[in-house]
């Protein structure tokens, strides 16, 4: 039997540090909810706004796949592997933290906040050599369809991670539908509505709501508002 869970946007954890305004779908930092620890191997989904000319100082990570999806503005990234890059809307950034990395993220703009999603996924391999990658995608390729942005495969569309996970993004006109076929048996899909509203498998899911579905092979989604935007994250449930 298909299982589902709906996390309304207003039930998320919230921390406003002034320079950082963050909403946490799952337990993170000072937000702890034993019912909201993770969805399968999806551990963190943070909806972050970084103030002008502010950012995260250098800090460590290990044994985690860290994906950043900028939604507005530019974010400068520096890390202990020697990378200095800027990510912006249309880019997807991934780090396999593995044996350990340090990095910082900074909004160099003095006139615009940065909005981005920070996503952590437990890896299926521990203590790998740390790696960094980023790509720029054509957002037109997700108009009224689902564009793959992440997979487990190095030669597939999007970035890749050490996990049997597939991420897609889509921007839909009102009334348009899509069918999602689960790529690997036993995986679940956590959907996050970036803008507007969708009907997903018969449930109304609104802006910044999260909706998880598992024990199914496929499901349908329909945009119920104009310019509805969505992120789908298929992950192992074990």
Regarding CATH, which class of the largest domain? Mainly Beta
CATH superfamily annotation of the largest domain: Jelly Rolls
CATH architecture of the largest domain, please? Answer: Sandwich
CATH topology of the largest domain: Jelly Rolls
> How much of the residues is beta strand, in percent?
over 45%
Q: How many structural domains can be distinguished in the coordinates?
A: 2
Tally of separate helices = 0
**Helix-residue proportion:** under 10%
Radius of gyration: 17 Å
> What number is the mean pLDDT?
97
Q: Please outline the major beta sheet.
A: 7 strands, mixed
Encode the helix/strand succession as letters: EEEEEEEEEEEEEEEEEEEEEE
Distance, first to last CA: 17 Å
- Strand order, biggest sheet? 1-20-17-22-15-13-14
Shape: globular
Unreliable spans: none
Structural class: mainly beta
Total beta strand runs: 22
Structure description:
With 238 residues, the chain is mainly β. The protein folds into 2 domains: 11-136, Jelly Rolls, CATH 2.60.120; 139-236, Jelly Rolls (Sandwich). 0% of the residues lie in helices and 54% in strands. It is built from no helices and 22 strands. It has strands spanning 3-7, 13-16, 20-24, 42-50, 55-61, 65-72, 74-79, 84-88, 91-96, 101-106, 114-121, 131-136, 147-151, 159-160, 166-172, 177-181, 187-195, 198-200, 203-205, 210-214, 218-223, 228-236. The protein has a 7-stranded mixed sheet, with no helix packed on it. A 7-stranded antiparallel sheet has the order 2-3-4-11-6-9-12, with no helix packed on it. It has a 4-stranded antiparallel sheet with strand order 5-10-7-8, with no helix packed on it.
């Amino acid at each position: 039997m298909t299982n589902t869970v709906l996390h309304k946007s207003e039930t998320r954890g919230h921390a406003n540090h002034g320079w950082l305004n963050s909403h946490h779908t799952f337990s993170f930092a000072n937000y702890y909810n034993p019912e909201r620890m993770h969805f399968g191997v999806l551990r963190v989904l943070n909806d972050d706004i970084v103030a002008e000319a502010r950012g995260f100082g250098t800090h460590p990570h290990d044994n985690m796949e860290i994906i950043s999806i900028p939604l507005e503005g530019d974010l400068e990234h520096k890390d202990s592997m020697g990378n200095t890059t800027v990510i912006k809307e249309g880019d997807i950034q991934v780090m396999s933290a593995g044996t350990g990395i340090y990095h910082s993220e900074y909004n160099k703009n003095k006139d615009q906040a940065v909005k981005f999603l920070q996503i952590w996924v437990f890896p299926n391999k521990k203590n790998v050599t740390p790696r960094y990658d980023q790509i720029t995608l054509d957002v037109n390729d997700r108009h009224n369809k689902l564009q793959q942005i992440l997979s487990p495969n190095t030669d597939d569309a999007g970035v890749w991670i050490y996990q049997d996970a597939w991420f897609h993004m889509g921007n839909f006109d009102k009334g348009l539908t899509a069918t999602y076929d689960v790529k690997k048996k036993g995986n679940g899909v956590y959907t996050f509505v970036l803008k507007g509203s969708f009907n997903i498998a018969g449930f109304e899911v609104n802006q910044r709501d999260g909706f998880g579905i598992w024990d199914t092979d496929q499901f349908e989604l329909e945009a119920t508002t104009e310019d509805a935007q969505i992120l789908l994250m298929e992950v192992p449930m074990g």
